[in-house]
Amino acid sequence: MSPLTPASQTQTKSPTRPEVTIEAEGREYGVRSIERVCAVLNLLQESVDGVTLKEVADAADLPKSSAFRYLWTLERNRYVERDAETGLFRIGLGFLGMQSRHLEVLRERVRPSLERLRDTLDETTNLGLLDGQNVIYLEIIESRRSVRLAASRGSHDPLHSTALGKAIAAHLPEARVREMLEQAGMPRRTAETITTVDDYLAELAKVRRLGYAVDNRENEPDGRCVAVPILGTRLPAAVSVSAPEARFPMRDVEKAAQTLIAVASEITLSPVTQVDSPSA
What we know:
Layout: H1 32-46, H2 53-60, H3 64-76, E1 80-82, E2 89-91, H4 96-121, E3 124-131, E4 134-141, E5 156-158, H5 163-169, H6 174-184, H7 197-210, E6 213-216, E7 223-230, E8 237-244, H8 253-269
Antiparallel strand pairs: 1-2, 3-4, 3-8, 4-5, 6-7, 7-8
Helix pairs in contact: 1-2, 2-3, 4-8
């Protein structure tokens, strides 16, 4: 870099190569489309229950059609989620840091219920959450039996071959389910795994009719699992009980499912545990 030169010795600049300077004239260098995305995300972050398309359009100064395209792109990348029942938009799991408090509240609500359920059924109980095109295990209360069926906390399983995945997917828009299955594929985990989209959608219709989902040796050849969704929360989650098939015959599935439905209802209706802020 050349040293600074007194003004009296400054040479005349060539007219063919004008100097580019940043002038303090209040000139804006922001990118309008990015500013609009920030406006949308700020609105969603501040909302508790979600926002309407019109509110998003107003916040971003966009027509509704353009606002919808912004939201669709953000949803595709998991930064936004849309509630299929209310049509409201909210922050998605792509912002895991923003969601960490919601996840912790959900885990606090669910763990006591899962422990009681484990003690009642003497089998492993689970809390699962939709994470991309898979299910992530947020909480697992393992059976005390020496032989048990249990995943690891933080591990992922497919949407199409698990009871947790079915219970969650049954309450998502069909277009979104199709998109997730297309992106993730439907690999055959066992001889019983559902591997076509049409068969899977038919299975989800059955889940909605019964109120619970079953993994009948579809994810593990010697495992059986039943799950129900946790409705009325901000997160796509479900609870389940899993066990070796020899100890969990199909004739016991209905009874276990009704117990799970009661547990899920209790979780949805129970008040959120407030965590006091640390003292200064």
